Each structure stands twice: as structure tokens, then as C-alpha cells.
Q: What sequence folds into this?
């Protein structure tokens, strides 16, 4: 077959000029229908080749039978080329479909990962961060209140203790002054005859007793309304009091003893109140300390959770960015693959169209060269050459 084609090409080169040069001379001897078919065939290189080979074969052998077999063999080669092209295209198309499926699957997975991570970010992590901010803000307020309560408890305790110190100091001073007054009055009793209604008293003794009583009055005036009756009685007794009257002197001592008992009871109560307030303050401090421990631990736990969520958000955002880049890469590769496939498909279709046109021309040429009018055309052309 290769030998036939080589010879055909040589003959084509040798005879093509001759045919073209004699075309005008032979027109008057050619059947119009055959001439039209020949014109159509010569529009293509392969059709032109078959016409030239037909003439050469006719000149050499006197017939075109061998040409028919050669053209058929050439047609089978073209068909084989067509089959090979289709086979190769099936491989290319299979590889293309596999790449499209793989890239589409990877792109879908990347898009799924992006949507999943965005859902985690927007419906879980960010709302939780906002919730934690509110919780931490509330705990910070509780810690501030707790700290303020500590300061208030300490201030109240200091006030209570200062009041206790002041009160006990005043009560002690009052008791000391009462005892001093009672000592002076007792001395008056001892200095006189217990059987006498009146006691001899010097001006100096009277002055000391008056001074002591005035000091007691001054002390008790600070204790408020509960001692107002004592203060009034003391005032009545000291005004124009005749310390020589033993009975009045006895009443004065009884009064001072009664006052002393009341102040001593008040002093005892002050100590009890101090102990009670101290105990209550300790309980309050323990309560506040317990609350502080709870608030501090809760704040530390929620703050750590917020830190963890912040890191998680950063990781998720990084994951989203990475997968978005992956998605773009898959989409770009898929777009490139489809563009290449479209270009290859056009080439494939062009090849198929060209080969099919060649086969159609060969088939038409075989029909033409085997017709009697064409043989007459060749014989006339050869005889007039």
C-alpha cells in the first residue's frame, strides 16, 4: 500500500500539470454530468489525487481496477486513523471525566468544610464569646461589690470598736469618779459620830465632794436619756445640799451606788455587744471571703473558657481561609480542565469532520471512476493527449 501511495504521489506530480494544461481542449469532448462530478472531486486534494491516479492507471494498465482496490485500501487506512482518533479520544475523555469528578468532589468537600466551619463560628463560638463577655462583666461587678462589702464591713467594725473604746472609757471614767465620790462620802460617815444626826464637815471636804459630784454629773450627761433621771436627781441633790445631814448623805450614797450599778451593767453590756459585733463581723468576713473565692474561681474559669474560644475562633478562621483558597484552586483547575477539554474537543471534532469528508470524497470518487462515462472521459483524454 505504501508503494502504491508513493507511486501515486509521483504520478500526481508528473501528470497534474498536463491535465490542467489540456483541460480547456477537452471540455468539448466531456459529458457535462461527468465534468460536474470531476469538478466537485477536484475541489479537494484527495479527490484531485484520485482523478490523477485514475488517468495514470488507465495509461499504464488500460483499466482502473487496480486503482479501485488502492483507493479502498487507502480508505481503510483513513478509517483506521478515524478509529485510532476515537480510541485516543475515549482515553482523553475518560481522563477528563475522572479529573472533573475528582476536582468537583474536592471543591464540594472544601465548600462543605467552609460552610461547616462558618456555622460553628457564627452559631456557636461568636455567640458564646458574647455570652462569656456578659458573664465576666456580671462577675466583675460582683467582685467589685464584694470588695466594697469588705471595706464597708471593716469600716463598720472600726466604727463599732471605736465606739466601744470610747463608751468603755467614759463608763470607766464615770465609775472611777463615782467611786471617788463614794469614798469621800464614806469618809464623811466615818469621821462623825454615827449616832449624831449631823456630821461635822470642813470646807475642804465639802469642796472635794462637790467637785467629785460635778464630775460624776458631767460623765453621766454623755450617756443620753437613759440616765437623765439620775442626772436630774444628782442635780437636785447637789444644789444647796447640806452634807452635814446624815440622812441626806445616806441617800446620796444610795443614789451613787444605784448609778454605779447601772453604769457597771451598761459597761458589761458594752463588752458583750463588742464580742457579739466582733463575732458577727467575723461571720460576715467569712461569708464575703467565701463569696470572693467563688467569684474569683468562676471568673478565672469563664475567662479561661473565653481564651480557649478565642483561640478556637482564630483556628476556625484560619481553616476557613485555607479551605477558601483550596476551593478557589479546585475551581481554577476545574475551569482550566474544562477549557482544555473544550479546545481538545474542537480539535477532535475537526479531525472527525475532516476524515469523514475524506471518506465521503473517496466513496464518491470510487463511484465516479467506475462509471462508463468517466472511463470514456479518461480514454478520450488519453487519446487526445
A:
Amino acid at each position: 500500500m505504501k508503494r502504491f501511495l508513493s507511486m501515486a504521489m509521483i504520478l500526481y506530480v508528473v501528470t497534474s500539470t498536463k491535465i490542467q494544461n489540456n483541460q480547456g481542449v477537452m471540455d468539448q469532448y466531456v459529458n457535462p454530468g461527468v465534468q460536474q462530478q470531476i469538478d466537485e472531486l477536484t475541489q479537494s486534494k484527495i479527490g484531485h489525487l484520485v482523478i490523477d491516479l485514475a488517468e495514470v492507471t488507465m495509461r499504464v494498465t488500460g483499466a482502473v481496477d487496480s486503482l479501485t482496490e488502492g483507493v479502498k485500501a487507502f480508505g481503510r487506512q483513513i478509517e483506521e486513523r478515524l478509529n485510532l482518533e476515537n480510541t485516543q479520544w475515549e482515553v482523553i475523555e475518560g481522563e477528563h471525566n475522572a479529573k472533573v469528578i475528582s476536582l468537583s468532589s474536592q471543591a464540594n468537600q472544601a465548600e462543605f468544610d467552609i460552610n461547616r466551619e462558618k456555622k460553628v463560628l457564627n452559631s456557636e463560638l461568636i455567640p458564646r464569646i458574647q455570652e462569656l463577655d456578659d458573664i465576666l462583666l456580671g462577675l466583675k461587678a460582683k467582685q467589685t461589690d464584694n470588695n466594697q462589702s469588705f471595706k464597708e464591713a471593716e469600716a463598720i467594725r472600726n466604727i463599732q470598736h471605736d465606739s466601744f473604746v470610747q463608751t468603755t472609757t467614759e463608763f470607766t471614767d464615770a465609775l472611777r469618779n463615782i467611786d471617788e465620790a463614794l469614798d469621800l462620802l464614806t469618809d464623811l460617815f466615818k469621821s462623825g459620830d454615827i449616832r449624831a444626826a449631823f456630821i461635822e464637815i470642813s470646807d475642804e471636804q465639802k469642796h472635794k465632794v462637790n467637785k467629785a459630784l460635778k464630775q460624776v454629773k458631767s460623765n453621766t450627761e454623755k450617756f443620753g436619756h437613759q440616765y437623765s433621771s439620775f442626772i436630774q436627781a444628782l442635780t437636785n441633790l447637789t444644789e444647796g445640799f447640806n452634807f452635814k445631814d446624815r440622812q441626806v448623805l445616806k441617800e446620796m450614797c444610795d443614789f451613787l451606788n444605784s448609778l454605779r450599778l447601772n453604769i457597771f451593767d451598761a459597761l458589761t453590756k458594752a463588752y458583750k455587744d463588742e464580742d457579739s459585733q466582733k463575732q458577727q463581723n467575723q461571720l460576715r468576713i467569712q461569708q464575703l471571703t467565701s463569696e470572693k473565692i467563688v467569684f474569683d474561681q468562676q471568673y478565672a474559669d469563664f475567662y479561661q473558657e473565653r481564651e480557649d474560644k478565642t483561640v478556637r475562633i482564630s483556628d476556625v478562621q484560619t481553616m476557613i481561609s485555607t479551605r477558601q483558597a483550596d476551593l478557589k484552586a479546585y475551581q481554577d483547575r476545574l475551569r482550566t480542565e474544562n477549557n482544555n477539554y473544550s479546545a481538545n474537543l474542537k480539535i477532535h471534532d475537526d479531525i472527525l469532520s475532516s476524515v469523514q469528508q475524506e471518506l465521503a470524497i473517496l466513496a464518491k470518487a470510487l463511484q465516479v471512476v467506475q462509471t462508463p462515462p468517466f472511463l470514456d472521459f479518461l480514454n478520450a483524454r488519453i487519446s487526445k493527449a
Remarks:
- The CA atoms of residues 106 and 330 lie 7 Å apart.
- Residues 133-288 form a domain with the Four Helix Bundle (Hemerythrin (Met), subunit A) fold (CATH 1.20.120).
- The chain is about 90% helix and 0% strand.
